[in-house]
Amino acid sequence: MPGVEELEVVVAHSERATLRVGDVFLKVDTDETRTDVEVEAMALAPVPTPEVLWHHPPVLALAALEGAALGHLGDPSPASPAAWAAAGAAVRALHEAPLPPWAGRDAEVLAAELDRECDWLIANAVLPTDVVLRNRRLAETALRPWTPVFVHGDLQVDHVFVDGDEVTGILDWSEAARGDALHDLATLTLGHPEHLDDVLAGYGTDVDRDLVRAWWSLRCLGNMRWLVEHGYGPPEHYPEVAVLLSQP
């Protein structure tokens, strides 16, 4: 790419890496299935997504999005309440779209994962036992029957880009599947409870806020081992731990 003077490593670990080269993002994934899902999901999603420049497994090249991320887990969001509401409206449009042809993880699979992760957290003294057990009880309430919708599956606040009050694109679709709508809403608002009302105003339908909070616990408990094993520093510094400690 002529004129490119710098290569930025956005994410890099043993499974995946994302590099920014000028206005192009290069995603490399050891699991080609995830990249295939990402390309197909972006083609099906009725919301703005990055332009696919080319796809030669295991590398996917995407054009950069305009604007900036809605926020970052652990930091105050610079975006306006209207931008958060616009994100909620985009999520609603996705959830109302036809289901993708592939299935996602069901409640039984998630319950087994929750058991394993909580046992590991306690066995390795990563968190106080009472914090794990309290959040485990809360997380279990999210694992009720749900009507599947088209979910993004990893709708972190960093993955939603806005320009002013407009959503310009949503990134990282490799976890897209059929799933629980509240999982997406919880992932988007994780660590940003002050914007839950804004997101739900844009989403435009009644949502059980207690179940959103239950998904916060489920996601945080499920992410802890990965963060520890991939060298993200002392657990007490994780934003996820702050969320778990704040849960009633």
Would you spell out the secondary-structure blueprint of this structure?
Layout: E1 7-12, E2 16-21, E3 24-29, H1 32-44, E4 52-56, E5 59-63, E6 68-69, H2 81-95, H3 107-123, H4 129-140, E7 149-151, E8 160-163, E9 166-170, E10 177-179, H5 181-189, H6 196-203, H7 209-229, H8 239-246
Helix pairs in contact: 2-6, 3-4, 3-7, 4-7, 5-7, 7-8
Task: Tell me what you see in this structure.
The protein has 248 residues and is an alpha+beta fold. 42% of the residues lie in helices and 18% in strands. It has one domain (66-246): Aminoglycoside phosphotransferase (APH), C-terminal lobe (Aminoglycoside 3'-phosphotransferase, Chain: A, domain 2), CATH 3.90.1200.10. The protein has 8 helices and 10 strands. The strands form 3 sheets. It has a 5-stranded antiparallel β-sheet with strand order 1-2-3-5-4. The chain has a 3-stranded antiparallel β-sheet with strand order 6-8-9, with helices on one face. Strands 7-10 form a two-stranded antiparallel sheet. Strand 2 and strand 3 (24-29) form a beta hairpin.
List keywords for this structure.
alpha+beta, 18% strand, three-stranded antiparallel β-sheet, 248 residues, 42% helix, globular, 10 strands, five-stranded antiparallel β-sheet, Aminoglycoside 3'-phosphotransferase, Chain: A, domain 2
H/I helix tally: 8
Query: Biggest sheet: strands side by side, in what order?
Result: 1-2-3-5-4
Instruction: Note the beta-strand portion.
Output: 15-25%
Tell me the series of helices and strands, N- to C-terminal: EEEHEEEHHHEEEEHHHH
- Topology-level CATH name: Aminoglycoside 3'-phosphotransferase, Chain: A, domain 2
Shape: globular
Mean pLDDT, all residues: 94
Largest sheet: 5 strands, antiparallel
Based on secondary structure, the structural category is alpha+beta
CATH architecture: Alpha-Beta Complex
> Between the first and last Cα atoms, what is the distance in angstroms?
52 Å
CATH class: Alpha Beta
Domain count = 1
Uncertain spans, ≥5 residues at pLDDT below 50?
Answer: none
Question: What percent of residues adopt helix (DSSP H or I)?
Answer: 40-55%
Work out the radius of gyration.
Answer: 18 Å
By DSSP, the count of extended strands is 10
Report the CATH superfamily.
Aminoglycoside phosphotransferase (APH), C-terminal lobe
